[in-house]
Queue: 2 jobs
Job 1
Amino acid sequence: MVHESHRHDHDKGFLAEVRWLRKIRTFWQTDLNRAIVELAAPGPGERGLDVGAGMGAATVLAAKRGAHVVAVEPGGTMRLVCRLRRLFQRARRRIVVEPGVAEDLPLSGDSTEVLWAGNAMHHWVDHEAAFAEFARVLSPGGRLVLVDEDYDDPEHPKHAEFAGHEAEMTPVDVAVVATTMRAVGLEATGSHQKVAGVPAKVIRAVKPG
Ligand SMILES: C[S@@+](CC[C@H](N)C(=O)[O-])C[C@H]1O[C@@H](n2cnc3c(N)ncnc32)[C@H](O)[C@@H]1O
């Protein structure tokens, strides 16, 4: 079930999604998504979860590696694109596209070995609820990787364009995120590092076995 209260205003509505669609060539596949999938390393037969999957860039890469992937995405237009894209994948039987939000995932407990999210953390309006959901759906020993590009870092090539963009969204402080995750029982670390050559905020965590 999707709670409207768990969505930022800019995620609601057709117009916001059309804005994303205009950038389809940029977001169809990105180096960042390739790098996220490398970091998460979903293996053959593993059950993966792409939170805020968008057009499914990371989802299809993970499925190509042999993982079974649930792509959770609140935006109806994004889901439609993701579903159409799925049809053209050899690995389509390993991909399921579901409506939902990080704060209220449409998955049962202990159902996921590996979870990832790209440029999505700052969209989640309730980090405590989201991380409690991650702790619930991950199986014992399961892992997660969250990566948000750090546009506030002057070294980011799009710093001038996007610095401060989190101001109207959910600010992401890696230390706070890691602490919030530890409070729900995940062994989490947060760091600033380059991912696919750009500064990024990276959270990694494991659910104790
Ligand atoms: C910047 S896009 C990134 C999409 C994709 N991960 C990628 O890297 O191409 C952020 C995505 O998060 C989704 N989103 C927004 N609020 C969300 C929430 N509360 N839970 C899960 N996803 C959300 C948006 O609909 C959007 O598709």
Job 2
Amino acid sequence: MQSIKSKTINTDADYPVKTYQHIFFDLDHTLWDYDRNVTESLSELYEHYQLKAIGIESFEKFFESFHHVNFQLWDWYNVGKIDKDNLRKERFPRIFSHAGGKPEAIPVEFEEDFMQRTSSKPHVFPYSKEILHYLKGKYKIHVITNGFNESQAKKMKSSGLDGFFELIVTSETTGHKKPDPRIFQFALDQLKTEAEHCLMIGDNPDSDILGAQRANIDQVFFNPEGKSIDLQPTYTIAHLRELEDLL
Ligand SMILES: [Mg+2]
């Protein structure tokens, strides 16, 4: 076992044993394989709309531009500098410009087609469904996501992740985004529970780990790439299977 745990599970009688009842999962990059699903749909779009003919010389250029622009816009969205409608409206014009294409050449349905294709993709992280089956017998499991209602629901259905979760909390529903502790408090209120009975599992230190810490909820940092971060999560795992050792 290669996991690096900043705190081991409590078996010491001198230390109160945590009684988790509710497990909160992040969705994108934690269960749903965002990178693989997005790469597939971008590749299809590049061919379908023949983007080479409108100035985007290669798929690699399109792909690199997507990541550059999309992450910038999501960073802005996460700190409230841009709203959902403008993120969607501005995304592909900026990507086309960045990739050397003409923004005015974008087919009008491009953004919608991207959203539809991507949220229809089935790929999840290794052991996602196995760990959800495992946990479902022992805990109540839920999702807390900064994504949008419609796309997150569709992603879960297309990938077979629906049916595991009792509560699905989105930033769109609550009006608060992780790491704002109010999105976690919303979940606690809905479940009529306390922070000490909950555990948050997610890949993003700035939203999942910091947010749960602000809400006094223990955290599992899902870190398959072994990134180093400044925060001290309660637990760190590199593979979802490791949750069986913790829970
Ligand atoms: Mg995530």
